[in-house]
Amino acid sequence: MPERLIPIQGDITKLQVEAIVNAANNSLLGGGGVDGAIHRAAGSELLQECRQLNGCATGEAKITKGYKLPAKWVIHTVGPVWKGGNQGEDNLLASCYLHSLALAEEHNIKTIAFPAISTGVYGFPIERATKIAVTQVNKFLQSHNSPKQVLFVCFSQDAYLMYQQLLKDLLKS
Ligand code: ADP
Q1: Is position 158 annotated as part of the catalytic site?
Q2: Which residues pair with 61 in a beta bridge?
Q3: Which residues, in sequence order, are CB contacts of 60 under 8 Å at separation 6+?
Q4: Ligand 1, pocket-test mutation among 14, 34, 127, most atoms within 8 A of CB
Q5: What are the structural domains of the chain?
Q6: CB 110 within 8 A of CB 146
Q7: pLDDT digits (tens, 9 = 90+) for 156-170
Q8: Which of 156, 89, 150, 152 is nearest to 118 (CA)?
Q9: Atom from ligand 1 closest to the CA of residue 36
Q10: Full-prediction pTM beyond 0.90?
Q11: DSSP assignment of 87-156, as one string?
Q12: Rounded mean pLDDT, 107-133
């Protein structure tokens, strides 16, 4: 099981996986951070397709093609804005991972890469977000054969080390 969960450090727009996940906003019309990087790398056709989707609720996910990205698909999910932790943020973040994985399975996607959703501009504390990410993905994979492999893509070394540690802890338990 744990070898299906892989932390890596790098730029998600460069990855040769079947699907990458975008930490989008409710409009799905692009933004800063990883969202901006994905739209820049995919080209303007991505925005055109996103315009047809009528946005996305927080905690939900929608899928588009990847256009100029190496990835064939982009799964756009909208993480919660951190408001102190008592506004359902944990459940909404968990829901982002689960809905993205369910969409991936539906499309027969075998390899998928997630960024650290909500941990940038949306301000979710990184350790708390990482625990939710690894726990939810692990839980999903235990009861589903697909996707085969899930990459956690960390932009910073701090985030990478945290994913490594939490995945190791998960392995022990
Ligand atoms: P959110 O609005 O959900 O917080 P951000 O894009 O601000 O989204 O940040 C989410 C995470 O994505 C942050 O941890 C940030 O460091 C990371 N990130 C930003 N650009 C990239 C990229 N090109 N590849 C992978 N991760 C990235």
Answers
A1: no
A2: 77
A3: 77, 78, 95, 96, 99
A4: 34
A5: 2-172 (3.40.220.10)
A6: yes
A7: 999 999 999 999 998
A8: 89
A9: 6
A10: yes
A11: SSHHHHHHHHHHHHHHHHHHTT--EEEE--TTSSTT---HHHHHHHHHHHHHHHHHT---SSEEEEEESS
A12: 97
Assigned token pair, 41: 């790398």
Ligand 1 within 6 A of CB of 34: yes
Cβ(8) – ligand 1 distance below 6 Å: no
**Closest approach atom of ligand 1 to CA 122:** 4
- Residue of the nearest CA to atom 3 in ligand 1? 118
Q: 89 in ligand 1 pocket by Cβ < 6 Å?
A: no
Bridge partners of 77, per DSSP, are 23, 61
Which residue type is seen at 151? Answer: L
Nearest CA to ligand 1 atom 18: 34
Task: Quick: pLDDT tens for 87-97.
Answer: 999 999 999 99
Average pLDDT of the residues in 18-26: 98
Model ipTM value? 0.98
Average pLDDT, whole number, for the chain? 96
Taking the centre of ligand 1 as the mean of its atom positions, its distance from the CA of residue 52, in whole angstroms, is 24
Residue in the block written with tokens 């910073």: 156
Pocket test for ligand 1, best of 20, 28, 155, 162 (most atoms within 8 A of CB): 155
